[in-house]
Specification:
Elements lengths: L1 E2 L24 E5 L2 E7 L8 E4 L5 E9 L3 E9 L5 E6 L9 E9 L3 E10 L2 E10 L7 E9 L2 E10 L2 E10 L2 E10 L2 E15 L5 E15 L2 E15 L2 E14 L8 E13 L2 E13 L2
Antiparallel strand pairs: 1-2, 2-3, 3-5, 4-5, 5-6, 6-7, 7-8, 8-9, 9-10, 10-11, 11-12, 12-13, 13-14, 14-15, 15-16, 16-17, 17-18, 18-19, 19-20
Length: about 290
């Protein structure tokens, strides 16, 4: 449901009379069962909000501001107050995952909402569709029918939990096959991966290409950025400022993945025919520590 501060829903009954109002700068509180959030109006002398109630009892609200978890946001609510149509535009909802310019449309259904989404990520542009299920006396479920990014499709069902999402996802296509299990540990979202790659390529940034290989590990989406721990065994690898004919890595701690100039890495790497920015090596077999910044 949508809770409105006193005064919301009053005003003009005609769309063409909707206007910016100085007195509209009040927080908009949204709650859908365990979801609770607050949207603060945008700064400035006037809040960019539009709201009115129609004669049939439906309402319309459009505004922009800053969400307490997802940063700058634009939101439109339209329809029945108990379950309106929703449009969200989030500029940078998760820097750790490289999410940007994310647009989400929610259409009410008998079971909850049908959704479509699109945006940018560290692996490239993505689109997604599915449902948000709101069963009585049970946890909400995000049913991802498909999430397509760089030729790869992700699907599965996730449950919102404190601090993020939990559940298994299947990964297929675009040269990848495997699973990703989401969980929240110590208040931080984690993604535990077990993936096989065959001629896989992602535009990034940073761009990455893998001829053949396997990736097993965990990505923690900390507020400071992704932290990677895991094992990689691959051939014909190109990305992160280097390329190698073979690569076997035991990564203990890797950070600042999206910015090579700030990359930090602890682990053990074995590689053959390595080339990078200004260097070329026949073989590498060493413990490694890279500290940039």
């Amino acid at each position: 449901r949508v809770r409105r501060p006193q005064g919301h829903g009053r005003g003009h009954a005609r769309d063409d009379r909707c206007r910016r109002t100085r007195h509209g700068r009040q927080p908009v509180h949204l709650a859908v069962r365990e979801y609770r959030s607050s949207l603060e109006p945008a700064a400035g002398p006037r809040a960019d909000h539009c709201r009115y109630r129609r004669p049939d009892g439906t309402f319309y609200f459009a505004g922009q501001g800053r969400h307490d978890s997802y940063g700058p946001i634009k939101i439109t609510l339209d329809g029945e107050i108990t379950r309106p149509k929703v449009n969200l535009v989030l500029a940078r909802p998760n820097d750790a995952a490289g999410l940007a310019d994310v647009a989400v449309d929610l259409l009410p259904t008998a079971a909850g909402y049908r959704y479509t989404a699109k945006g940018q990520s560290r692996l490239g542009a993505f689109t997604s569709d599915g449902a948000i299920l709101l069963p009585r006396n049970a946890s909400s479920v995000i049913d991802i029918a498909r999430l397509d990014v760089s030729g790869t499709t992700v699907s599965g069902r996730l449950i919102p939990v404190t601090g993020g999402l939990s559940g298994p996802l299947k990964i297929t296509g675009g040269g990848l096959e495997g699973t990703m299990d989401l969980a929240v540990t110590g208040g931080v979202q984690e993604a535990r991966m077990d993936i096989a790659a065959s001629n896989a390529a992602f535009p990034g940034p940073p761009p990455l290409r893998i001829g053949q290989g396997t990736v097993k590990g965990t990505v923690r989406l900390t507020p400071a950025g992704p932290v990677v721990v895991g094992q990689v065994a691959a051939t014909d690898v190109e990305g992160f400022g280097f390329k190698a004919r073979t690569l076997n890595a035991d990564i203990q701690d890797m950070r600042n993945i999206g910015d090579f100039s700030r990359l930090t890495l602890d682990g053990t790497i074995k590689a053959e025919a390595v080339e990078g920015r200004g260097f070329q090596l026949a073989d590498v077999d060493s413990d490694i520590r890279i500290i940039n910044g």
